[in-house]
Amino acid sequence: MKNRIVTDKSLLDMNTFGISARTAYYAEFSSVYELRAVLADPQVAGLPRRVVGGGSNILLQGDFPGLILHPAAQEISLLEKTGDTVVIRAEAGVEWDLFVAWNVARGYAGLENLSLIPGYVGASVIQNIGAYGVEACEAVREVEIFRTDTGLTETIPAEKCRFGYRDSIFKRELFGKAIVLSVMFVLSTVPRFRLDYGDLRAEVERRGGATIENVRQAVIAIRESKLPDPKVLGNSGSFFKNPVVSEAMSAELTAKYPDMPAYPVPDGVKLAAGWLIDHAGWKGRRMGNAGVHDRQALVLVNSGGATGAEILALARAIQDDIHEKFGVDIEPEVNIL
Ligand code: EPU
Predict the structure, then answer these.
(1) Which residues are near ligand 1 (CB < 6 Å)?
(2) For the whole prediction, is pTM greater than 0.90?
(3) 3-state secondary structure of 136
């Protein structure tokens, strides 16, 4: 089989932050067979490896000294339709929003709140993407992976994926050991609308009421009004996770800032990092070529020609300031490479 490994490749078009950096080695794979061949190549033996799909949730600190693997398999298959339930498999290289649109067009409900999220299907389970009150894990049945430590494929049922808020087993125990090949989702032909987040219900009503298509269009409109288009202004969506603090800490902050958003979650109270950053005065500010988006303070942007180090310097300055002003620690949501 011919060697598919490319050397010294630019990653500029492969990260939505628009950071100019290179990788020592790069290879695409669309089957386990191809993946095995790439991994067995002696030129990449022992080097660091990362999988990059849409590149929409990464920050490149500089050139990558190892192998970047890119999933290229893009099939979507309807496996089963029983009563109201549909089971669909999507390969890791399918663009997430194409997958959502594919389902919405067929009347398969469950993912419409997750419209317009950049990235690939493979990353959706690693990151457990979420928006407007819904998380990807709610529709996942199982994840097919390739284990780089054993060289075998494995199917992990959703209950064993340890899904949490922007979290999964793939970011923890299986970090660096699992390459997602495909994801099996369970959706329904009978929608159960989830419209309680923010302005979603009002936006859906304005479009004539709840249908899967109207929810998708409403979510797209809300996202477009707040989140910068990476093709115009480089960014990776929310740069930080929303922090979860103790009830005591939340009560202390709410007494001081009565309008601060705070949502009870099983392990404490979730605060809005965007609100904290905004109220610390960072919205719209710039440090060098890195900036804080002027409509959503949780989004850091590349104002033009920023390096990964500049974005990180801004992120650290924000973290320190939020710690000082509110006593709260915020952690990056993007993966730093
Ligand atoms: N807020 C401000 N100022 C800001 C930004 C937010 O005061 O500059 C306040 C808002 O008014 C609101 C609260 O903070 O009361 C939450 O804001 P928003 O609804 O915009 O959502 P978020 O918590 O900032 C999260 C996700 C987004 C997702 C939205 C909608 C994370 C890290 N981010 O953002 O996901 O689209 O909810 O569900 O959980 C992503 O992960 O990349 C992403 C964009």
Answers:
(1) 131-132, 197-198, 226-227, 237-238, 241-242, 261, 272, 274-275, 278, 283, 296-298, 333
(2) yes
(3) helix
